[in-house]
Design goal:
The protein has 8 helices and 7 strands; from the N terminus they run ααβαβαβαβαβαβαβ. By secondary structure, the chain is an alpha/beta fold.
Length: about 260
């Protein structure tokens, strides 16, 4: 091109170019032992009765509720229970809270106020939260730990959510016939959780004898479990396999292999 021709070439300005949509990624790993994460959650007295329409309904506590899909869908299809999701990662918690607000505004007449999310660290806040649930007149029917962060590195094993303290806290809070449900697609993580509950509590294990439940007793899978079963679990130790176990507060005579 000549100088005069170059002068006639239109160069697109940055302002006229289409803007790329920015997608906010949720951070996958958070150190639960950091100074910020170890700060106790501040909750007002009577908070549980304020956030649930009927605080006397039995409560399911989902530890590590991620973006809230499991709790939201369960609450919508199961109005006879309250679902409380606990999530440490701010981005995931905020995404779940936004979904809840949207669902309540879209279906104010059909969606019962039986779901709520707290940005909480189970290793710090679980005992207080479960006490508040009971104080409000509810019974802690189920405590779920589904596909927690595996924290593979040896120096990070202490960050795992299921600790002796957490297991004992769950045991003390569970209502009679209530249970803790543990699941992972990483065998070593599932074995770790089972080992802790076996050795730190007097709860009864289902199915026992070193085997695993064939399916979730909850009647619904999390987004993570659905992906794993479809062979899309990039950290799964055995493609398509989930390792599940439940620990019940019940008598030996009542122990069955059907935790429903």
């Amino acid at each position: 091109l000549s100088v005069s021709e170059e002068a006639c070439v239109s160069v697109p300005q940055a302002a006229s170019l289409p803007k790329r949509r920015r997608v906010k990624r949720v951070r996958q790993h958070v150190n639960p032992l950091s100074e910020v994460a170890m700060r106790p959650l501040e909750l007002e007295a009577g908070w549980y009765a304020e956030v649930f329409e009927d605080p006397t309904l039995p409560t399911t506590v989902d530890v590590g509720s991620a973006r809230g899909g499991f709790c939201l869908e369960s609450a919508r299809e199961d109005p006879g229970r309250n679902y409380l999701g606990l999530e440490l990662r701010p981005g995931a918690h905020d995404a779940a809270a936004r979904k809840l607000v949207a669902l309540e505004s879209q279906s104010p007449r059909t969606f019962r106020k039986n779901c709520h999310f707290l940005k909480a660290n189970a290793n710090v806040d679980l005992a207080r939260i479960l006490r508040d649930v009971a104080s409000a007149g509810s019974r802690v029917e189920r405590v779920l730990v589904q596909f927690p962060d595996p924290h593979f590195k040896k120096r990070h094993l202490k960050r795992r959510v299921v600790t002796p303290e957490v297991a004992k806290t769950v045991e003390a809070a569970l209502a009679f016939d209530g249970y803790a449900y543990l699941a992972s697609d990483v065998r070593e993580v599932a074995e770790h959780m089972r080992h802790v509950f076996r050795n730190e509590t007097d709860l009864f294990e289902v199915p026992g004898e070193g085997t695993w439940l064939d399916a979730s007793p909850l009647g619904r899978t999390t987004e993570r479990e659905a992906a794993v079963l479809a062979g899309q679990g990039n950290t799964s130790t055995e493609p398509g396999a989930c390792f599940r176990v439940a620990f019940y507060r019940r008598s030996t005579q009542q122990l069955t292999e059907d935790p429903s």
